[in-house]
Specification:
By secondary structure, the protein is of the alpha/beta class. It has helices at residues 3-13, 20-26, 31-42, 48-59, 72-81, 94-100, 105-110, 128-137, 151-159, 239-243, 258-262, 335-352, 356-359; strands spanning 87-89, 113-115, 145-148, 163-166, 191-195, 220-231, 265-273, 280-287, 298-303, 317-327. The structure holds adenosine-5'-diphosphate, riboflavin (RBF) and magnesium ion (MG).
Length: 396
């Protein structure tokens, strides 16, 4: 179980159902304040300490498995390479931060300073941690740029007089960021200057920093990769019918992995289906299909192969190794514009995946049918990217 699942389970054990709104209230806050907010929002009559004591043992030994959100490792490595001083402002305690970074040397080494939740008088949304870090680095808050995923953190950094790029890691029904995020004002001297759908959309050159140079064709390589395994389910019945583009929708439960839960966008990768180990290039969307305004998140792989009219994967196992980011989900004026863009995504994937850096992933053993997998059949495959996540990992 990763963090959102643990919070959901603890809430359920007290007869409450965790809502997206309540989950977001807790985002970026110190653990006790987070639990107090969740308990108040859901009417759970337990102390924050009691709830924390219930959740912590479920998480404690698993923090090191928390995957970095897409784009975090890339951005941190890039800014480090160009010599930009970086600091980490987190609501996590010093002890938990140590656990979270235990297997992430590249993150431990990248940050000159860290300020933890148990080292300040007031947690986010108070500005304390950001003010303290600017002082320790000897820089003017006005010269700092903060990347934050939580409303509490965006407000904290703004109150410290810093510019903030908000990258929500938790979205509300329909895939919208909640109203808790301040509206961005591009070019403002302090406060929220941008609200991005993913850190993969961050362009350093817009902030006077050297641009990324890691594109492969028209894609950005993902590190870590996203591994997804699930069952093909019936979708809305419109992929083939309305768009002429069939998508083998992945069941909703299988999307509840730490990474898949935090990710939206249009991607490319390798896919295999059913009992066959044959691997195909695939273009897929993960999100809410803004053109249709879906209430629930879907993952829709369009396998770039002609299986013929009669093909039906419904109920079959589907395995995805997602390695390339293409673009954010978008709304389009017309269905034809959506169709044209998806065909273009297909071409982008066809071309980019010929690169050796992507071709190697076609041999990922994850793509073997479960029955033939090196892991014992029937046992859930627990990978690094199926572990707990806390979005504070993405805040700097
Ligand atoms: P739904 O809305 O139920 O997902 P679609 O119209 O998107 O229906 O069609 C999806 C189905 O089409 C898949 O479940 C699969 O059985 C079949 N299919 C045939 N060819 C492909 C392909 N190249 N990629 C994905 N699915 C395909
Ligand atoms: N839906 C959107 O609303 N906006 C998009 O930008 C979008 N891009 C997609 C890209 C690819 C490669 C695929 C396979 C699907 C995309 N879709 C998008 C989802 C599409 O609307 C969906 O598959 C159909 O509505 C069938 O459910
Ligand atoms: Mg479909």
């Amino acid at each position: 179980m990763h963090l959102p699942q643990v919070v959901r389970c603890v809430a359920e054990s007290h007869g409450a159902v965790l809502t997206a709104e309540a989950a977001e209230l807790a985002l970026g806050m110190r653990p006790l304040e987070a639990w107090a907010a969740v308990a108040a929002a859901l009417g759970i009559e337990r102390s924050a300490q009691e709830l924390f004591d219930q959740s912590e043992p479920l998480l404690r030994d698993r923090w090191h498995e928390a995957p970095l959100l897409p784009g975090v490792a890339r951005l941190v490595a890039h800014l480090r390479a160009v010599g930009l001083p970086m600091a980490l402002a987190t609501s996590t305690s010093r002890a938990t931060l140590g656990r979270k970074l235990a297997s992430k040397a590249e993150m431990r080494e990248a940050f000159a300073e860290a300020c933890c939740g148990d080292e300040v008088a007031r947690g986010k949304p108070a500005p304390d941690c950001f003010v303290q870090l600017a002082a320790r680095l000897g820089v003017d808050p006005a010269d700092c740029l903060v990347i934050e995923d939580a409303p509490a953190g965006v407000n904290a950094a703004g109150a410290a007089g810093m510019r903030v790029v908000a990258v929500p890691s938790m979205l509300q029904k329909g895939g919208k960021p909640s109203a808790q995020y301040p509206a961005p004002t591009p070019g403002a001297a302090a406060g929220c200057v941008a609200l991005l759908p993913s850190l993969l959309e961050f362009r350093p050159e817009e902030y006077g920093l050297p641009p990324f140079q890691d594109r492969i064709g028209e894609t950005i390589p993902l590190h870590p990769l996203i591994h997804l395994r699930g069952t093909v389910v019936k979708g809305f019945g419109r992929g083939s019918r309305e768009l002429g583009i069939p998508t083998a929708n992945v069941d909703a439960d299988s999307l509840r992995t730490a990474l898949a839960e935090a990710v939206t966008g249009i991607f490319g990768g390798w896919c295999s289906v059913g009992d066959s180990p044959a691997v195909y290039k695939t273009a897929l969307s993960i999100g809410w299909n803004p053109v249709y305004g879906n209430a629930e998140k879907t993952c829709e792989p369009w396998i770039l192969h002609d299986f013929g009219e009669a093909a039906d994967f419904c109920g079959a196992e589907i395995r995805l190794v997602i390695c390339a980011y293409i673009r954010p989900e978008a709304n389009f004026e017309s269905l034809q514009a959506l169709i044209d863009r998806i065909h273009r995504d297909g071409e982008v994937v066809q071309e980019a995946l010929e690169d050796e850096r992507y071709l190697q992933h076609a041999k990922d053993p994850f793509l073997l049918p479960s029955a033939q997998h090196p892991a014992p059949a029937g046992e859930p495959v627990q990978r690094a990217d199926g572990g707990p996540t806390e979005a504070a990992d993405g805040s700097a």
